[in-house]
Every structure is written in structure tokens, then in C-alpha cells.
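Chain A, query sequence.
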Amino acid sequence: MSDYGVVFITAASREEAETIAAALVEKKLAACVNIISAVQSVYWWEGKICREQEVFLLAKTKTRLFPQLASEVKALHSYKVPEIIMLPISDGSADYLQWIQDVTG
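Chain A, predicted structure.
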């Protein structure tokens, strides 16, 4: 398993995304969170297809911090079932990976 990963999170609004991003960085659960506005999502929810504008967050973190990161996102999120998906970083710049190591808990 990789020591580092990126976490995909969607949020209902820019304000919610900024709140989540700030909490993750301040609590050292993520080294960096990118916020990408105006993502169009199409998904199944409660038996129907929904189309919504969402905000996408991309958090860089250590794999071992994922349970805490997911818990923090759930505590701050407005969705009943928020998207919180981690993908491993299979390779990357040694300097960047060291930076993630240095600034996260």
C-alpha cells in the first residue's frame, strides 16, 4: 500500500468546501486541499437521477490519516452520504511527497 494518497470530496457549496478544506489543513489531516468550483455531477439518489452543481475538493494526505480525515469531513458535511474516496499515489516527486510527510500529522 502507498504511504500517500489523494482524496476526492464533493461539497454542496463553495462555503462548505472552504470550511472542510480549512479544517483538514489546520488539523494536519491534509497537506493541501485544492478547491475546484462548478463541477456538474449526475448521480443516482433515492431512486432517481439527480443533476447538481457541486464543488470538488482534492486533498493530499498520508494513507494512515484517511480514517481521521473521513471522520472530519463527515462531521462538517451537509450530505447524508458524502463522497470521500482515497486513491493511492503510486509515485511522485520525492520533494513533494516529503513535504506531505512533513506537514501532516
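The longest strand covers residues 48-62. The mean pLDDT is 97.
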